Amino acid sequence: MSRMPLIKPEILFMSQKPWDGRFSENTDEMVEKFTSSIDVDKALFASDIEGSLAHLKMMAHESIITEEEATKLEKGLEVVKGRIEKGEFEYSDALEDIHMHIESALGDVAGSVAKKLHTGRSRNDQVALDVRIYLKKQTLEVMDSLIALQKVLVETAHKHMGVVMPGYTHLQRAQPVLFSHHLMAYYEMFKRDYERFSDSLKRTDVMPLGSAALAGTTFPLNRELTREILGFSKISDNSMDSVSDRDFIMEFISHATICMIHFSRLSEEFVLWSSSEFGFITISDAFTTGSSIMPQKKNPDVAELVRGKSGRVVGNLMAIITLMKSLPLAYNRDMQEDKEPLFDTVNTLKASIDIYTRMIPHVKIHGSVMRTAAEKGFLNATDLADYLVVRGMPFREAHSVSGKAVAFALENGKELHELSLDEIKQFSDLVSEDIFDFLSIESMISRRITHGGTGYDSVKSAVEKAALLLGITLG
Ligand code: ARG
């Protein structure tokens, strides 16, 4: 059943600033500049237009405006969109933000009917909607690129399955591990990141429009219809919360921070591993740069920059949570400051994921250097203790015996496996000839087959399980 349109355009008043009806003085120039957010929020133009198109369709469906008016406004919005996309749009601080810019440009294109667009809507629910539309899309893109990164990690782990390296604790050589196991640790981290983003997406995917300034609206808006048109999963349940909720932004940035911390750790390893001191990897020329003074230099800039950029995201997290702290309900202008940290986080995170995905296949793995490192530094001391335990000695005692053997080997400039049988036997006569095989790298790794351990079988099955989850076939 169609109702009469609820408002006539001539009733609405729109002068240069949509809100200046009650103002008798012009805005101070400096204030105009200070309060303007257009430089930042113009990035939301597509979301803003998408939201307005849905709002129009819904209003026409509910006979709040006529079909003809809606069509005219829809066409007008497409024209405005085209102008922005082509860079033919003029921005001005006087129009504050992207919402007012678009509304004003629509007036130029479509005439006075443009004054009806904002019916039953406030910039408060409009901006909340725009950011949600934007962030839904960005979160999905981040999730996709995290999948691409995981694939590269799993493929690299598969490719270098036999490579052994020293595993570290306190950055001291601890026990031998498979290089693939080490890489798969990062797979686990980025998998959790993916899960976190997919979880917060549920809370971003909530449609706030119809909350108006804070209290809802007197117009018979069909919020469910707007939701459906925009492809949101649900509508928000409290208008005051809807216009002042920025949890979804805080969540996104905090998940991004954790993800960037993972990258920062990986970067630190890449920087260390590519140094002459380690020599474990060589990052290809395409992903490194030289020094303007030292001709021999080849620097791991990508890793360093990603490590550095993690700081920006941590800063963005501080900015957004501090911004929200102590804000009374409902909307406060402080919230306009949410966009810079969000956009910067999105851009930094996406760039970091993408550059790593591209770089990892171009990293040369020096398996023999890693292996040599794993053979030095008594990485088999725990296994000597384990050997004694299997032969009946309590672990604490075995730990001390192995420690004494290490001290003796150190004094004699040897590794444990380089001692003679008699030399080891002086610490315990439980030791026999089979100790040498037991202390070899291969057998040490092969024995660690508990779920999640570095044993060949455990790592192989972790890699295969990951490949299955990611839908990739390993060569
Ligand atoms: N530019 C504003 C922001 O990003 C839009 C909302 C303005 N609302 C207002 N009541 N002044 O938060």
From TrEMBL:
Pfam families named in the record: ASL_C2 (PF14698), Lyase_1 (PF00206)
Main localisation: cytoplasm
GO biological process: L-arginine biosynthetic process via ornithine
Enzyme class: lyase
Annotated compartments: Cytoplasm
Record key words, sorted: Amino-acid biosynthesis, Arginine biosynthesis, Cytoplasm, Lyase
Domain Fumarate lyase N-terminal intervals: 21-315
EC number: 4.3.2.1
GO function terms (MF aspect): argininosuccinate lyase activity
Domain Argininosuccinate lyase C-terminal: from-to ranges: 378-445
GO CC annotation: cytosol
Catalyzed chemical reaction(s): 2-(N(omega)-L-arginino)succinate = fumarate + L-arginine
Family label: Belongs to the lyase 1 family. Argininosuccinate lyase subfamily.
Protein name: Argininosuccinate lyase
Organism: Desulfamplus magnetovallimortis
Source taxonomy: Bacteria, Pseudomonadati, Thermodesulfobacteriota, Desulfobacteria, Desulfobacterales
